[in-house]
Write the structure tokens for this entry.
Amino acid sequence: MSKKSQSFFQGAMLKQALWDAFVRMNPQYQLRNPVMFVTEIGSLLTTVIFFMSLAGHAEASPSFIFWISLWLWFTVYFANFAEAMAEGRGKAQADSLRKARKDIQAKKLKTSNRLSGFDTISAASLRKEDIVLVETNDFIPCDGDVIEGVASVDESAITGESAPVIRESGGDRSAVTGGTRVLSDWLVVRITANPGETFLDRMIGLVEGAKRQRTPNEIALHILLVALTIVFLAVCATLLPFSLFSVHVAGQGTAITITALAALLVCLIPTTIGGLLSAIGIAGMDRLVQANVIAMSGRAVEAAGDVDVLLLDKTGTITLGNRQATAFHPAPGVTEAELADASQISSLADETPEGRSIVVLAKEKYGIRGREIHELNAHFIPFTAQTRMSGVNFDHREIRKGAVEAVESYIASLGGKMPMEVRKSADDISRKGGTPLCVTEGKKALGIIELKDIVKGGIKERFAELRQMGIKTIMITGDNPLTATAIAAEAGVDDFLAQATPEMKLKLIREHQSKGALVAMTGDGTNDAPALAQADVAVAMNTGTQAAKEAGNMIDLDSNPTKLIEVVQIGKQLLMTRGALTTFSISNDVAKYFAILPACFAATYPVLGHLNIMHLKTPESAILSAVIFNALIIICLIPLALKGVSYKAVSAYKLLRQNILVYGVGGLIAPFAGIKLIDMIVGRWMM
Amino acid sequence: MVKDTRQGWALLATMTIILVSLLSIAVVAEQNGNPAFQGLNIDQTASSLHSGGNMEGKEVRYGIVNSAIWATTTTAASNGSVNAMLDSFTPLGGFVPLWLIQLGEIIFGGVGSGLYGMIIFALIAVFISGLMVGRTPEYLGKKIESFEMKMASIIILIPAVAIKFGTALALSLEKGRASVFNPGAHGFSEVLYAFSSAVGNNGSAFGGLSANTPFYNIALGIGMLIGRYWIIVPVMAIAGMLAQKKKVPASSGTLPTHTPLFVGMLVAVIVIVGSLTFLPSLALGPIVEHLQLSGK
């Protein structure tokens, strides 16, 4: 995936972000974020005071006011820069997507008949329910459903995956996406989206963050930040009369300057998290895009972090796509090699994955090489629903393989009898969750081939991780309960739903939701759509039907069902990053008080100098250092905000302990060191 | 109902930790006596003859420790009765009851009202740090979302703002300043205490301020109107909202709110949020007075 290799600071992007950050200084834009708006007002106020001081109305030395004012502006600028950087990364992706939306010509059919003749029109003038013909090397003009034809389609513009996919009418592979290209054959497509509403349009909008709305959790955090801002506004506003009174009763010193008050206010209000909040949200969506998942809303990403129950399809997610042959169990009087040989011959022409796996197993175990079925002069008997068997006839030998009951009745019809031992080993295999296939030559049963679902490597460990995170995994399978139990035990899932029907899935989801749990699932087929619509986090496969994609709130472009686990982690990481920076921001304030308060009142009450535990050089350098630290910390935390805090799959208790230590205690200590360091530099330079 | 007594023990532990620490500060400050008397040949050490320490304004029958305990608990809870003159306490001894009221009288507090105040702080603690476990914050199985945060903000915000602006108003007007008897930072503490006690539903008086003037009667009355009683409305709104919400089953991914770690976190949030709001005013009152008196 070429999309992933995006360097952190790209030259052009950086330049764009630097400019965008400047444009965003517009107070009207800042109004959306009260924390930064207050900061900007503070910057503006100090700037005015600076010019007044130049005109002779000095409340402090003009150079001090100038530097405070400058760094307050920097604080606003840095916060804008963080947001611009986050959006810039999305924009770069949107641009590459936009290339897929060239001016496409569409062949609009008069009727749904392919031969009815067409008008060539611009894709932009297509509307819902129009019928178009797409031929080899044509671009598909708009999202739609295939109503006739089969074709291979290059969807790399959307998915980044170069291998073409098959699209055909009916069934679960009928959805086509505008901007993709037909490589062979032709399709008749019924358009399902108006221009501007297509999948590609939505995707561009999402990665650009243009239509980004605040998520519920972001809103709640925002309220807290606004409340803190109001508290600190009150603190600073009342500090002036307090200070005047103190000067009055102490009979010495001067009242606190407006510049110092503005500096104190900006240092106290949660600028760190306030400035980085939107960047964190955008970056979270961006991480999802880099994992090749498109979320229809930020709400869904957040919900992913809260998921309590994961519904996972067995096939493709927990097990490899198909059952595979793992062992031969010969009947009494038959050697394993004989059984393997017969099994291999009977499977040579069998193109099903099961059949191929038998050939592979015979080769691996007994070195039986592939033979050409024509050379053997053999006649292949294909599988039918009536016989439930397949096989070959050659040299007067008649080899059949199939379900045990089917083969048993076949042997009985020839006047033979199935040996007890064979029956028993078939039962054993069933009980262990495997599928027995019986092989017979004429009326002589040769033995059983054991087919098993192969559980994906490493999946058990992932489920253990999920359990640690407090997430319950439920396997969904069409298998019988016996088989399902065995696979569930092997894969280590917490629960399973056997012989699942769409109704049962829906019921299961509702059941968990009524207990207050959030349910996530993946799906691709039309029959998954109701369950997808009911689930809180629903990841639809890009290869899936239009119905599934509409019902889901995320689309996985790689169509990899295991991706759900990654999505959950991205959601958790997003929330954690917010929490960590909020905690950090608030605990920072303690040190800032110790820097600024003694500096503000040292002239009135010299004894307050005892609170200057950092031994900052002068009151001016103390206030300036705190302001500089406050601005620089935003820049320092941009990488963390964009990348997200590191996430390990451990219990909430351990995560909390670790994060409190790093961001809570760290947030208390770091500014003491940082402000002291800046003071040493600033103090020397201000001398 | 919560049906989990561990949650209650955690809140009780949080309250106890804060009470005991502040009580210790008050007792030690009072027992150490008045630094101004040092070198004046006045015996302030405890002996079999007298309790020693700062006995000014205290009943001889109660002595230092009982007076300090009463002062601390009367403001920790919204009791308001006194058995010693708070105005005559040492600066740090007076700081303790002042700050306890400003925290919102949540350390045990009045019947019910202390508990809900503490639960509001628990919600804020859960919200700030609960996000760090990567889930929407939950308390007692209920999700804490924007409505709860809005109400919690109002509950914390209104009294704090009322105390600050009331004090600021009194100190800005000649009428307000005229009632202050004591010079210097102590006079500031007296006004601050008057508004904290009125707004914070305590009712105890620091003393040293002639509050029975038309100005203070009206200003403190308005403070009471803003800060008392109706605060229960947003609290009930939170309760109603939480009651409607479905209970999320606890798992190992849920933030545990009964562990010592959470108790520590809750103490930190109360102290930090409380001190961030009132530290500047406390610095200009009791803290500066203490530093001046100790003559460092």
Residues 260-294 of chain B form the longest helix (35 residues). The longest strand of chain B covers residues 138-139. The two ends of chain B are 54 Å apart (CA to CA). Chain B touches chain A through 65 residues (CB under 8 Å).
